Amino acid sequence: MDAKSVKPSRDIFGGELIVIRKNQINYQIKALALPESRVGAKLVDQYKKDVTPKEEFEKTELLKYAKDYYRKKGVGRPTKKDRRDIDNYQEDTTEEI
Description:
By secondary structure, the protein is α+β, with helices and mostly antiparallel strands. Helices cover 35% and strands 16% of the residues.
């Protein structure tokens, strides 16, 4: 996949694959065709197909568990003592290998 950043106003064509990053997920949308004129939001699904692999959604599940492991949401940054404990833990696990 040849990825490049483009401006939002760039024209797209039928059969083109579009990658959109939202909430740490890379959604892959395939443009099936282009409507002749503007259409309502309910009809947009006729012109696109979501081809995002399941692995992308599984990555976010793992990230959610990794973030919740050490600190609860809203607690803030680690203190100096917390930082030392983390460094000591990392040194201990490195020595065992």
